[in-house]
From TrEMBL:
Location within or outside the cell: Cell inner membrane; Cell membrane
Family indicated by similarity: Belongs to the peptidase A24 family.
Chief subcellular location: membrane
Protein name (record): Prepilin leader peptidase/N-methyltransferase
Gene Ontology process terms (BP): methylation; signal peptide processing
Gene: pilD
Function: Plays an essential role in type IV pili and type II pseudopili formation by proteolytically removing the leader sequence from substrate proteins and subsequently monomethylating the alpha-amino group of the newly exposed N-terminal phenylalanine.
Transmembrane spans: 6-24, 102-120, 127-145, 151-173, 203-220, 232-254
The keyword Cell membrane is annotated on this UniProt entry: yes
Membrane topology qualifier: Multi-pass membrane protein
Top-level taxonomy: Bacteria, Bacillati, Actinomycetota, Actinomycetes, Micromonosporales
Reactions performed catalytically: Typically cleaves a -Gly-|-Phe- bond to release an N-terminal, basic peptide of 5-8 residues from type IV prepilin, and then N-methylates the new N-terminal amino group, the methyl donor being S-adenosyl-L-methionine
Every Prepilin type IV endopeptidase peptidase domain range: 105-213
One Gene Ontology cellular component: plasma membrane
Enzyme Commission number, as recorded: 2.1.1.-, 3.4.23.43
Length: 262
């Protein structure tokens, strides 16, 4: 693993994060991602290229539009930095491998879907459904190159298993689980199943654990009530990413609790 590769991943993450800001803003509104070009949401002035450099432009403009001087939310550079950090972490996890693009795509989708779900309490089909095909196609090269059919089968079973599990919850308790969560669960099952069964189990459990902790924190701080609808997508995505990076150590630790060494 070279420093140059990680640096490239970070720069790519910043660029992708800049595009994700457009996705987060426009997809829930069913707007085109291409036209019009980047513009200030307040005065509609087109953003010049020199004012569209990730993070640096926001800092240079002191968080304000160059034309109307309205504030630009700090969330924009934070999304770019978060995406860059995830890209570096994923690159460090998988190295220069054929499977790397698939998990970089997962990282990008995770950022976009988490932010959209927090904003509008939805996980848009326009992102989730095509991601099944994109994810599968990005995973194909490593199957062909390594003849790793077992990983492909695990991915398909993981996809079906998590989809069915979340569907059962949504069917039995419709007020606590949306069908958008069900569709997202299948996508996460594909990626986690590809890595191994421990990743599926850790990812699913971590999602519910993180969701429960977030809900409890909101209740304690009185930022939400017992009947407040809370987005579950961010917790699912965070749990899945945790499993991508730490399923092995977590599974080993849990196994040691069940079968303690003498």
């Amino acid at each position: 693993m070279t420093t140059a590769l990680l640096a490239i991943a970070g720069v790519l993450g910043l660029a992708v994060g800049s595009f994700l800001n457009v996705v987060i803003h426009r997809v829930p509104r069913a707007e085109s991602l291409l036209r019009p070009g980047s513009h200030c949401p307040h005065c509609q002035t087109a953003i010049r290229a020199r004012h569209n450099v990730p993070v640096l432009s926001w800092l240079a403009l002191r968080g304000r539009c160059a034309a109307c001087r309205q504030r630009i939310a700090a969330r924009y550079p934070l999304v770019e930095l978060c995406t860059a950090a995830l890209f570096v972490a994923v690159t460090a996890r998988f190295g220069p491998s054929l499977v790397l693009p698939a998990y970089l795509y997962l990282a990008a989708v995770a950022v976009a879907l988490a932010m959209i779900d927090l904003d509008v309490r939805r996980l848009p089909d326009a992102i989730v459904l095509p991601s099944y095909l994109v994810g599968a196609l990005l995973l194909v090269p490593t199957v062909v190159a390594n003849q790793d059919w077992s990983a492909a089968v695990r991915g398909l079973i993981g996809m079906a298993a998590l989809w069915a599990f979340y569907f059962a919850i949504a069917f039995l308790y419709p007020g606590g689980m949306g069908f958008g969560d069900v569709k997202l669960a299948g996508l996460l099952g594909l990626y986690l199943g590809w890595l191994g069964w421990s990743s599926v189990l850790v990812g699913a459990f971590a999602g519910f654990l993180l969701g429960g902790l977030a809900g409890a924190a909101l209740l304690v701080t009185r930022r939400a009530g017992a009947k407040t609808a809370m987005p579950f997508g961010p917790a699912m995505l965070a749990g899945a990413l945790l499993a991508v990076f730490a399923a092995g150590p977590v599974g080993h630790w849990y196994g040691s609790l069940l079968v303690p060494t003498v």
